[in-house]
Write a structure and sequence with these properties.
The chain is mainly alpha-helical. Helices cover about 70% and strands about 5% of the residues. Strands 1-2 form a two-stranded antiparallel ribbon. The longest helix has about 45 residues.
């Protein structure tokens, strides 16, 4: 039963409850709150999940970037480090070389370049008491560090013997390899002979005229001297050519 109040006209009237005091109102309020809370929780969950996804993407990107560094770049850095280390080591090594060794190397370069000496010839000159008198170790250091083409030196010496001394092919070879001569190896001497452009007939004739003019030798004696193993070592054909053209 609703509450009654007396009106101005002397009659009693029923008083209605305010809507907020009615049960249905509060039921509605509770339902609305529950729905709102559910929606808010879903939004928060979705936001949290999106944040996790973004974080994962960033991590994957970092990992991908780190793993896709070009191997060439890594290799280049490695080679640069190796190169700098090698240069540093080389500089330190050069600085530690004794002055005597450096001097021996400079002398060795001079003998090899200007006098076209053989490897053994340079070593002997560096260590000889009548030469440079360097210690054997200094001389060996010089030999080990010479960048000389010994074949080219042998050829240069061969050309000199042919042009200035008119020697025979065998005579040049023997002079290049002799212990009392140039001391080139047999292979270096053979290279020189194989690449020497010499006119041995002309050389034999020049020698023949020298024997005739300076020693007044007969043609037969000249021929024997030209072909002798203890003499000039020209071939019989080269000696015959010389004798035949001796008086021209």
């Amino acid at each position: 039963m609703g509450k009654k109040v007396l009106g101005e006209d002397g009659k009693y009237y029923k008083v209605k409850k305010p809507f907020y005091k009615k049960v249905w109102f509060w039921v509605l309020v509770i339902v609305v709150i529950a729905i709102g809370g559910s929606l808010n929780g879903e939004e928060k969950g979705a936001a949290s999940k999106d944040k996790e996804n973004e974080t994962a993407k960033v991590k994957n990107t970092d990992t991908s970037t780190a793993s896709t560094v070009p191997e060439s770049s890594v290799s280049s850095v490695s080679e640069t480090v190796k190169s700098e280390t090698t240069v540093s080591t080389t500089v330190e090594t050069v600085e530690k070389v004794p002055t005597e060794y450096k001097s021996a190397l400079n002398k060795g370069k001079s003998y090899a370049k200007t006098m076209h000496m053989s490897k053994q010839g340079v070593y002997d000159q560096l260590t000889s008491e009548y030469g440079e008198s360097f210690a054997p170790e200094a001389a060996q250091y010089a030999i080990d560090n010479l960048s000389t083409d010994w074949n080219a030196n042998a050829l240069a010496k061969a050309e000199s013997y042919s042009d200035t001394m008119n020697m025979s092919k065998q005579g040049i070879f023997d002079q290049l390899t002799s212990e009392a001569g140039e001391r080139f190896t047999a292979e270096e001497a053979q290279y020189a002979i194989d690449n020497l452009k010499a006119d041995y007939n002309k050389n034999a004739l020049a020698k023949a005229k020298s024997y005739q003019e300076q020693m007044s030798m007969s043609p037969d004696a000249i021929r024997d001297q030209l072909t002798s193993a203890a003499g000039e070592q020209f071939t019989p054909e080269e000696a015959d050519y010389a004798v035949q053209h001796l008086n021209e």
